[in-house]
Amino acid sequence: MPAPRRTGSAYDALLGGPVPSPRTGLTGEFPRSGLTGELSRGGLTGEFPRLDGAGTATRRERRNGTPTTPGEPESAAMLTPDRLIENGGRVREKPTGAWNKFVYAATFRKLNLGDSAEVRVAKDEVARITKQFEGGTRFVPVLTRKGGVGKTTITTLLGMTMATLREDRIIAIDANPDRGTLSERVTKQTRATVRDVVTRANAIGGFTDFSTLVSRDETRLDILASDTDPLLSEAFDENDYNVVADLAARFYSIALTDCGTGIVHSVMRATLQRADSLVIVSGGSVDEARLASETLTWLEANGYGDLVENAVVAINTATHGTSLVKLDEIESHFASRVRDIVRIPYDPQLAAGSVIDYKNLKQSTKDAARTLAALVADGLPSRREV
User: Fold this and answer.
1) Sign of CA dihedral 23, 24, 29, 34
2) What are the GO MF terms of this UniProt record (predicted)?
3) Is residue 198 situated within a structural domain?
4) Are 145 and 298 in contact (CB under 8 A)?
5) For 156, 224, 295, 318, which has the most beta carbons within 10 A of its beta carbon?
């Protein structure tokens, strides 16, 4: 005796019969080969995808809704971090700054505001300082007409900052014909001077030979001292400077030149002819600012107007009389003549006029030195024909 025929929506669907569904409002016929229908309540109509023998849809859709070629599987290369992981798998660093850290902690590490404004500025300056140069050494003279304004200190501070942040070699050359004190800003490792470099030039075959004639600071800044004998110092002229500069250009990416007091000696001409940018040092008093401005006037009158336009003025606020003048007015004056101005704050280490321990400088001093270094680097050409 045959089994009684079962009825019901699901059973009739399998047999290809009608499927009334008053509860859902779904009406229509559902043949075995495919499904068509209409959702009468929602007013939605459409075709259901056909099913193959394994019960999988022959039309595939990616997660972003873009259909692939029918029947074509995705390759493993489609499983990228950008597609599968939030932020492409990039882990954001913890935020910096008191407020940003507080928000990060208060939201259980869900809201990361990133770096504080100060840190963003610092990172931008570091990126500018560390840019790569092509086509030879960049020369940066540091000069002024007046002595005692901290020119040698600024040269050392600038060199230490660049040497700390860059991976290549930085040298500071004391080209003061009247016995400079640049070598006294670091721990001396040699008694050699620029005179020794000149006399041994033909025997210097590589950096190992040259390195025995300089003192290297913990920051990796190399310093080449000036002559200490006053009788010999007068003999250091532009030809000697060119010998030293040519050798430095073989081994260093950036060469700072402490030009000494005054600007009319013969070494100055050779220094300016090689210069890619200038740092003019001014004190914070009336006469110091005026003499620094007169230095710019002399440079313009002698054909170095392009260097003046690209120059950076460093105002050393540790000199006498700074507290009595309007520094904003000094800055306003120099802003009309040069590319930029930086104030160097008072620091007991710098004021002592002795060995500078970079790591123990005040943070405000390091920040100002970093800003100065970034501005100097901005004025150096990235590429130049040799």
Assistant:
1) negative
2) ATP binding; ATP hydrolysis activity
3) yes
4) yes
5) 156
**Helix and strand counts by DSSP (H, E) for the chain:** 15, 11
CA end-to-end span of the chain, whole Å?
A: 105
Report whether pLDDT(33) > 70.
no
* Same domain for 166 and 107: no
Q: Are residues 154 and 258 in the same domain?
A: yes
Pairing of strands 26-27, 36-39: antiparallel
Q: Which residues contact 318 (CB under 8 A, 6 or more apart)?
A: 150, 344, 345, 346, 347, 350, 351
Alpha helices, DSSP H, located in the chain: 9-15, 81-84, 98-106, 117-129, 151-165, 194-199, 207-211, 230-233, 238-251, 266-274, 286-301, 305-309, 327-335, 348-351, 363-378
Q: 101 lies in which domain range?
A: 93-129
**Per-residue model confidence (pLDDT) at position 88:** 52
Taken as a whole, the chain contains a residue count of 386
Using an 8 Å Cβ cutoff, are 278 and 141 in contact? yes
Beta-ladder partners of 221: 170
Classify residue 240 by burial, with Cβ atoms within 10 Å: 0-12, 13-18, 19+: buried
The single-letter code of the amino acid at 179 is: R
* Rounded CA separation 224/172 (Å): 6
Which residue, 385, 382, 386, is CA-closest to 129? 382
CA distance 261 to 327: 23
Answer yes or no: do 322 and 181 share one domain.
Answer: yes
Write down the pTM of the prediction. Answer: 0.73
Per residue in 196-225, pLDDT (tens digit) is: 999 999 999 999 999 999 999 999 999 999
Q: pLDDT at residue 190 above 50? A: yes
Kindly give the interhelix angle for 117-129 and 363-378, rounded to the nearest 10 degrees. Answer: 50
pLDDT tens digits along 285-310: 899 999 999 999 999 999 999 999 99
In a domain, 386, yes or no: no
β-pairing verdict for 312-316 and 340-344 = parallel
- State residue 97's pLDDT score: 73
Tally of domains within the chain: 2
In sign, the C-alpha dihedral spanning 144, 149, 152, 156 is negative
Judge whether 68 lies within some domain. no
